[in-house]
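sorry to bug you again but im stuck and you know this stuff better than me. what follows is a protein written twice so to speak, once as letters and once as structure tokens for the fold. mainly i need to know what kind of three dimensional shape the backbone takes. anything you notice is useful, everything is just below:
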Amino acid sequence: MAFVILYLLVNIAAGAIACFVGKKLFYIMLGALVFLGVLNIGLSASEGSATSIVVAVVVGFVAALLSKYMYKAGVFSIGALSGAALGFIVTMLLPAEAGDYLGIIMAVAALLIGLAALRWCDLFVRLGTAYAGATFVSSNLLAAVLSFGKLAELAVPGDAAATFDALSSYIGGDFSAAYATPILVGVIVLTVVGAIVQKRND
């Protein structure tokens, strides 16, 4: 149970920070968001092996370095992460057959939104961090509220990695598919509010 609460708290807290103060903490939050995104995707697409966790840590660290020393690469990365998340959500709203093209849809959305981010950097940093944070908050908060019993059932006593793998797979898979519309509405609302808050704090 403790691992379930820890998983949810980390994802929701990191998402909330990115959503509401992401521009001020862009370089730090970029690494954190990319790390969490890669970790969640890696765990969903694999068996949560030690290798996939190490790769996620390395990629998150490299992304943090890129965002610090190469602003444009950082902006593109956060745009690409947001695009991939958008592609995932859009795929959940499409007919089931679209799931066969999930990787392609996520890659195309990541590329297009990453390139758009380079064109409108300042605006996109606010919107991108607000959106990326909103995706973590919306899906994890709704899962905590609507499906905490199921999350608790997925916990593996004494094994944090296996618990995180199971939670990531469930929230990113079955739960997101079942609650795609509420998650999308939550993401849109939080993105707008987060971008406004960030603009006022500039």
